[in-house]
Amino acid sequence: MPTEYDEIQYVSRPFRQTHPDRIASLAVAYGLTPPDPATCRMLDVGCGSGGNILPMAACMPGASFFGFDLAATAIAAAEQRRQSLGLTNIRLETLDLMDFPEELGQFDYIVAHGFYSWVPEPVRERFWKFLDRHLSPNGIAYVSFNAYPGAMLRHAWRDAAAFHSRGTTNLQDRLAKSIEMLRLMGSATTRNGAWEGVVREMIKAVDTKGESWVSHDDFGPYFQPYYFHQVADTAAANGFRYLCDASYYDMQPHEIAPDVQPMLEQLAAQSIELREQYYDFLELRAFRQILLCRQDQAIARPVDPATMGRLRFSTSANTVGASTNGDFAVQNPLTGIRADVPAPYKRVLDQVRAAWPNSLPFSEIFPAETNRGAIAAMVEKLWGGALIEAHAMNIPCGDGKDDRPVGWSLARKEAALNLPVTTRLDTQTQLDETSARLLEKLDGTVSRNDLQGQFDELDERLAWLGSMGLLNPPPAAHS
Ligand SMILES: C[S@@+](CC[C@H](N)C(=O)[O-])C[C@H]1O[C@@H](n2cnc3c(N)ncnc32)[C@H](O)[C@@H]1O
Asked: Which of 41, 78, 359, 375 is 20 to 30 Å from the Cα of 170, by its Cα?
């Protein structure tokens, strides 16, 4: 039977925090030995039209992927894209989670993004049994949900929109009325209070992500936020443990006043779940993306910097100035974070930066220096500050310097259709017309010489495409 997701298409795009590489890097940091993401089996629950799972499959030929969704139109679009990319390591099926066949076996990474808060109660209940049946013994699950207390504010506009659209039965009309109400709330007041800020942020999100997004996420039939402790308790009752947040940055108390931070640490010593719940109260957190593992997994907290030795690191952070106390102002374009760092940290960043868009194993960061503990501690702090990325696998990229640069096949297809292009780093960007035409041409048969004269600023453009993760590595780097 067609669902609301068949009637109004949901925009499907990559979510880097759900990538097995990122999930595995966090599991390693917390002392686990997760399945190797390069050869894993990954499952995307409610994958929509595959915007998240297809780029991963295209970039990780040694891993296998399964995406399913109740909406047949979304799966048909995903399947069409799969075929156009010629991918054989991914399967896409129209399926209800309630009927997920047991014989499909176990998966190493199960991702349910935008699912738990947006399905009816019986599906949520079944989700936990499904997870127990289908997560491999040392597998990791990613679950996102709308969180209280912050989500209470979303309830306010959801209720206002429901009232404003009362009596409309047609879905498109209901969406139009709901958006009308949201915009009315945004333009109704000239004050600059907390509520006005929240509504304006929401309108900005609608304008950038599209109206269909808010139609489902906020005005759809199911909208069930939870307190963190409620989900953690339900997970525990079903045999799972909270491992950590899907973003290492979000685990750090950046926004918490220094004199309150020791209180959070004391709570963490009692129970990490307690610490996380208080954090949500203090931050008015509205959305959660958590990682779960099975209860018998031996999690090591706090993170031991020595675990950095098992990871790789990458960064595109640049120095953007000097600060008054001798520190350096650096900015990471990937995360948007800008921070002041002391000289030894900048030195680490510069070395990792030199490998961009590729990553360096920890052992290759100043390999001749014996103070590995100090280097590991700096790397861990930079990761927590979102100035550096951690990886559990190598995702090689081209830097645009070779004679016959090869554009990444997925991005070349998207460029040909004038769509935003997906990078090998699991981000999206909109190309200008000239770069889009250049990327389209890079099929490995044309040399720089052939391209000279056809494209202005060729070297700069190729270097830029490389720095965005839009080029394949030269053949020798494939491993
Ligand atoms: C909010 S959307 C999120 C889509 C995608 N994961 C994302 O984040 O872009 C929720 C998705 O779950 C799917 N869904 C809802 N109930 C389902 C069920 N019982 N079984 C499988 N998919 C379901 C919907 O069709 C929809 O595509």
From this structure: 78
Q: What would the pLDDT profile of 187-219 be if each residue is shown by its tens digit? A: 887 777 777 888 888 888 888 888 877 777 787
Q: Domain for residue 396, yes or no?
A: no
- For every residue of 223-247, DSSP letters joined together read ---EEHHHHHHHHHHTTEEEEEES-
The span from the CA of 389 to the CA of 334, in Å, is 9
The reply to whether ligand 1 has any atom less than 6 angstroms from the CB of 111 is no
Q: Are 411 and 443 in contact (CB under 8 A)?
A: no
Report if residue 29 sits inside a domain. Answer: yes
C-beta 70 within 6 A of ligand 1: yes
144-156 pLDDT tens trace: 999 999 999 888 8
> Where does the pLDDT of residue 478 fall: very low under 50, low under 70, confident under 90, or very high at 90 and above?
very low
Do 239 and 117 sit in the same domain of this protein? yes
Identify which of 54, 119, 125 to mutate to test ligand 1's pocket (most ligand atoms within 8 A of the CB). 119
CA distances from 371 to 360, 363, 408 (A): 18, 12, 39
pTM exceeding 0.90: yes
Instruction: For the chain, state the CA radius of gyration.
Output: 23
Mutational pocket test of ligand 1: of 11, 70, 99, the residue with most ligand atoms within 8 Å of the beta carbon: 70
216 found inside a domain? no
Q: Is the CB of 466 under 6 A from ligand 1?
A: no
Calculate mean pLDDT across residues 303-308.
98
Q: Would you state the structure tokens that stand for residue 274, as one six-digit string?
A: 């307690």
* Ligand 1 atom at minimal distance to the Cα of residue 74: 27
Does any domain span residue 140? yes
User: Where residue 479 falls among pLDDT bands split at 50, 70, 90?
Assistant: very low
